[in-house]
Amino acid sequence: MKLGFEETQSSYTSGSQNARAWTEAWVKAWAYCPHCGSATMSQFPNNSPVADFLCKSCKEEFELKSQKGKFGPTVSDGAYKTKCERLAASNNPNLLLMNYDRRSLAVVNLFIVPKHFFVPEIIQERKPLAATARRAGWIGSNILLSKVPESGKIHIVQNGVIRPKELVLEEWRKTLFLRSKSLEARGWLLDVLKCVESLGKREFTLEEAYAFDRHLGELYPGNQNVRPKIRQQLQYLRDRGFIEFVSRGSYRLKS
């Protein structure tokens, strides 16, 4: 894998258009599919509704977002209605996030948020465009990266260093069980995992997890047994290798 862009093929006067051409050409030339490991990534036609790339081998779809600086807590995305409709679809795209260095024309970070980490809670509706705008009334969306657990951000390139492909594929496979879950069941697991990550330490107690009962109760108002549900999710996350049991009422996040 080569981290530099091929600049010579760009012919746009706009810097953002040139950057898009560079980054898309790089993905097509050097990226591989984290689902099957294949390097056969083909590009969808421009202005496709959601996705940008398709793995020819396993048919996984990918949406690419790229920028110079690191991504913050939110990422602007396409039409809100389209994004929500695709959440439960088999061809909902995985999200590729790239940041690059404008001077050296090279990839600095590239990570992927697998589609099975997408739940309604991380899709934010934006305000409609003003009546004076070219697309008046159009409603876009934001992806709330701050609500995605760390295990849902799988780095391929990190701080200019290419991570071993075997490690990337292993991290991807570890999360695939989420695809068999309903959106609500997936949401519970991811919300509980995000809560314990927010404690900021590897080891935590059941009582510390219970402290999020009000927050989780607000997210799932139909559930009247929040604490048993938290305990159930911790047991499931333990069985799936995301956390480990230390002693009675004590757990540890796996790195």
Automatic annotation (TrEMBL):
Keywords: Endonuclease, Hydrolase, Nuclease. GO terms for molecular function: endonuclease activity. Signal peptide: none annotated. Residues 184-252 form the Dam-replacing protein HTH domain. It comes from the Bacteria. This is Restriction endonuclease.
